[in-house]
Amino acid sequence: MYWIVFALFTTAETATDLLLSWFPFYFELKIAFVIWLLSPYTKGSSVLYRKFVHPTLSNKEKEIDEYIAQTKARVMTP
């Protein structure tokens, strides 16, 4: 769960880093967020995964499977 949430955070961070880096204490808040994700006491990554990532993936499961099948068919076709 942690690595999936961290990958999404890194992707979002890459897209928004230039826009938000002017914000006071931006880098400190980013470090605090990563610590919150990692902490076994807060279980931040589990909270985010269960509230946002898992429901989204569950709702889009059929579309994801179709996309994988289409991609597999394209790769297998000579």
From TrEMBL:
Primary site of residence: membrane
Keyword Transmembrane: yes
Subcellular locations according to the entry: Membrane
This protein's record includes keyword Transmembrane: yes
Domain of life: Eukaryota
InterPro entries registered for this protein in UniProt: TB2_DP1_HVA22 (IPR004345)
Family matches, as Pfam families: TB2_DP1_HVA22
Transmembrane segments: 24-42
Protein name (record): Receptor expression-enhancing protein
Family: Belongs to the DP1 family.
CC terms in the record's Gene Ontology section: membrane
Its membrane topology: Multi-pass membrane protein
Keywords, comma-separated and alphabetical: Membrane, Transmembrane, Transmembrane helix
